[in-house]
TrEMBL record:
Protein's name according to its UniProt entry: Branched-chain amino acid transport system permease protein
Gene Ontology molecular function: transmembrane transporter activity
One Pfam short name: BPD_transp_2
Organism in which the protein naturally occurs: Rhodospira trueperi
Compartment list: Cell membrane
Alphabetized UniProt keyword annotations: Amino-acid transport, Cell membrane, Membrane, Transmembrane, Transmembrane helix, Transport
């Protein structure tokens, strides 16, 4: 048995899990704090990938493109929240679903107008283009290690924001009791705008750093959206801790499912979700 092969698959699963966490954490924040079912979250991931493709080509520097693209993603989220989502907070979830589904179509059409339907690629930065030798015949790409490191750093920053800042305190309080937070004088409208901008920024950043290892195309947000919802359901709606461990679990299950059960790889993740829901219907780390 080649244990190095399984080590590589485990590293791939963990890296995929970190990427899922970035997307799912924004999704669970938006739903847990704002009560919005945001089907367009995968489209923001796609927007991030296209921003990386466009800005890296325009500047000739991938890292500069990411540095410029993340603020663009956050501002995009702030604008969309003020123009659209602000009218949906007290509406039925069906209207939220219809609005966000419409956004998927609009964003997809804008992407097609700006960049066409072709599949694009983003080059791995030269300084991260090498591999780390694991054995004489096995190596692991440095850029995938960079993705994991970037996700860990972002997750740490998000955890510090949630636990140790005034904004994080308001986010946690709003997730527990929104009405009480309003009665205490917190401007919930501004809080909602900040949370949505943060969520879009996280999704866009995930799309940017994933662009060099994935193809950039107009439907790339669909799969990540479905997997992110699975992560949120498994981890528990509104729980950042749940999003992290759910993402790790789903990332490893998806990767090893393709290794051990290639003929049923698409079923493994959903079977795991079903088992978790039978055991804990509210998710592994649902707020009590």
């Amino acid at each position: 048995m080649d244990y190095t092969y399984y080590l590589i698959q485990a590293m791939n699963g963990i890296q995929y899990g970190f990427l899922l966490f970035l997307v799912a954490s924004g999704l669970t924040l938006v739903f847990g704090i704002m009560g919005i079912v945001n089907l367009a979250h995968g489209a923001f991931y796609m927007v991030g990938a296209y921003l990386a493709y466009w800005l890296a080509g325009a500047t000739g520097n991938f890292f500069l493109g990411v540095a410029v693209g993340v603020p663009i993603g956050v501002v995009l989220g702030l604008v969309i929240e003020r123009l659209g989502f602000v009218h949906l907070y007290h509406r039925d979830h069906l209207l939220q679903v219809l609005f966000t589904f419409g956004m998927i179509l609009v964003i997809g059409e804008l992407i097609t107008i700006l960049w066409g339907d072709d599949v694009h690629g983003v080059s791995v930065p030269a300084m991260l283009a090498g591999s780390v030798a694991l054995t004489d015949t096995q190596a692991y790409p440095v850029y995938r290690l960079f993705i994991s490191a970037a996700c860990i750093a972002t997750a740490g920053g998000l955890l510090a924001l949630i636990r140790y800042t005034r904004l994080g305190m308001m986010i946690r309080a709003s997730a527990s009791n929104r009405e009480m937070v309003e009665l205490m004088g917190v401007d919930v409208n501004r809080l909602n705008m900040a949370v949505f901008g943060l969520g879009v920024g996280l999704a866009a950043f995930a799309g940017m750093i994933a662009a060099p290892v994935n193809s950039v195309h107009p439907t790339m947000g669909d799969d990540i959206l479905i997997m992110s919802f699975v992560v949120v359901v498994v981890g528990g709606v509104g729980s950042i801790q749940g999003a992290f461990w759910g993402a790790m679990l789903i990332g490893l299950a998806d990767t090893f499912g393709a290794v051990f059960l290639p003929e049923a790889a698409g079923v493994v993740v959903y079977a795991l979700m079903a088992l978790v829901l039978v055991w804990r219907p509210s998710g592994l780390f649902a707020a009590r």
